[in-house]
Amino acid sequence: MSVPDGYSLSDYRKKVSDKISAGWDVFKGMSQAAATMIGIGGAINTALRSAGEKPTSPEEILAEYLTWVSKNKTIFIVIDNYQFINHEVRFSLEYIVQKISLNTHFIIVDRTIDTESEITPPLDVVGDFIHEVKLFQFSKETTHELVSLTLNCDENLAQKITEDVFAKTLGLAKDIEYCLKHISLSLNEGKEFDVCGLLTTIHKLPLMHKQYLLIATMLDGGIQKEIANNAIKRVSYGVNEIEMDAIISHLISLEYLKFNSDTGNRLRTGHERISHAMKEIASNEWLDEIRVSLINEFEELLERNYTSENEGYVLHCLIGLQTAIELSKNLHFVSRLIKRQYIDEQFFYLVTLSEEAKDIMPILPDHSIMLILDSMQKTSNFEKGLFLLQYLEERGITSGAEEKALFKYKFLSQSYDYNTAEKVAELLPSELWTTVYKVNLYLSLDKIDVAIRHLEGSMLLRDDSEANAVLQRNSVTLLPPELAFVYLDKAEIFFQGADSKFRVATVETNRGFSFLCIGKYREASRSLSKAVDLMNAIGSREVFQAQFNLGIVYGMEENYLLSEEYLNLAHSLVPNNLLLDKVKIELSQIVFQLISGKIGESSALLSFKELLKKIKGIRLPYLTKTLLHNISVLEERNGNIDDELSQRLASKNKISIYFPVTYKNNLTLIINPSIHWRY
Q: Which of 4, 55, 502, 551 has the largest count of CB atoms under 10 Å?
């Protein structure tokens, strides 16, 4: 990979990551993440475990680095033999590519057969930046050029070989390569050569050679050599390790097999044509014999307390080898895989698993379904979460109804479908956590009176519960400032006792937000800086909320350069699907650029209208109201604010998401700072 000067991982660390990841060796994390991705070994999050608690995934770390590069440079990501990549790694790679799509070209070489794509499942990436290269048949003239360049022989022999090779391969590039490989080996060894195409030679291979190829074909990502050997032992008799190693060496020399790991212990097929050939020539009897022997070998590995590092791999293979009917009788393996991957923070893997194993979702135990739903929550796959819930409901699965209803509410509200979420919220059980969810919903809908009604009395019921502490933290805009700070102190004490650095940081974010609203900028800066430090210490991307508010503080102090820096940094860290947060930051950027004289009123007005278009059709009441007000101010030069909105503005006696910023000629623009209403 060619990296321009000034754009290496270490450069990123020096210029950017020190601001967003104090106390954590990001460079090491990214390097390990990249190595794991390239190694195609699964278990991606192991790249982060050596340096303490870090909720930020390596996919996100790598994505942020590449996003930083793509701002000034064009990135080309080129991958050959894409269909051979492990599904888990494919999903992570596609997530990264989709995330950094700006100024990026994702080029995959789809080595097709008869122009039909071998890539299954299809790409989970959309956009003009994707380029799919398909290899078609070469002409006889091109084949001759390849023969002449590869073999050191006279023209007559080259012409004879070309005729034979083209007749046997019909110009398929990889088949030509295999023919030339055979010929080259024969010439080097002084043997009389025979032009053999790939499929011809597979048919000629001894049974045990075919068994190895079949094993490698069965598992995406490859099979560990030791496991393949043990499976062969179960179906073959009288063979020894030396014999089996010689077979593997021979298959590798012909490139029927390739090593798929840096350690040299995982085998895969060397060409997609091998996979097709094995499906065609393997009889059902010995194919099933090999499959069952592999299943037995994986089951024994689990019984021998296989290391947790490899447990996910073994379970993944074990489940992939079984039919849906077999899995329905072995659900404990699926449940164990789900639990293992959840512990390993392989949330994207679990989202993919729920789609590929959709048929067995209705018969999985509730605790496994909840882990999958929570993975969808953590990866912001809200639409897929709603689909799974609907799929289970249509099949009459009614167990765990209350927990599923809570997930449905979360998915609806976080995908901005507040109309439906509001209906679901009213059906939730009346427990304290439900009060938290309802209060959050009505705050988002700007229904302050309804939120207060749900809040009344709740914060005094269970002063030592987690839900109560979250409610105390979230409710600052519903209380007088003096009472809001009291409850923030109570929440912080609880989260400190629970050793939750993340939630302590969210309290500091809301405390800084509250100080900002009442005009105490020094205190706001202190609390928000503390929140940034805490978030960085654990590697959380939620740091963008405190950085956003700090950008506003600096803007109010007329330090516009620092304001712009923090607002830009916050914007770069917001996940793409959090439209509300992105637009709120862009709104603040426009306001401070206008006040500082960086842009004019006509440019600001146009930008406000573009933001309004971005959220068209989405129910975001307070953001919509803010944008409409700002547009009205610049269009009509009207300094008056309607009575309802004027009563909602933040002031020394009121904490509010409507934060006023004075513009020239006593005009008032409004921005919406960031507050933690999360769970």
A: 551
125 and 144 inside one domain? no
Assess whether 105 and 171 both reside in one domain: no
Domain that holds residue 171: 140-204
Give me the residue label for tokens 């895969």.
Answer: 268
Q: How many domains does the chain have?
A: 3
CA dist 58 and 36 (Å) reads: 9
Question: What pLDDT, in 10s, does the model give residues 91-114?
Answer: 777 777 776 767 788 888 776 665
CB 626 within 8 A of CB 658: yes
Same domain, 599 and 658: yes
* Partners of 668 in beta bridges: 662
pLDDT in tens, 453-481: 888 766 655 567 888 899 999 999 999 99
Which pairing describes strands 104-110 and 130-134: parallel, antiparallel, or unpaired?
A: parallel
Q: Are strands 266-269 and 257-259 parallel, antiparallel or unpaired?
A: antiparallel
Length of the chain: 679
Identify the helix (H) or strand (E) that includes residue 663.
strand 659-663
Distance CA 365, CA 570 (A): 40
CA–CA gap between residue 634 and residue 606 (Å, rounded): 10
pLDDT, residue 33, reads 37
Of 134, 167, 186, the residue that ends a domain is 134
- Interior CA angle at 558 toward 557 and 559, to 5°? 95
How far is Cα 660 from Cα 318, in angstroms, rounded to an integer? Answer: 60
In terms of domains, do 188 and 73 share one? no
171 close to 139: Cβ distance less than 8 angstroms: yes
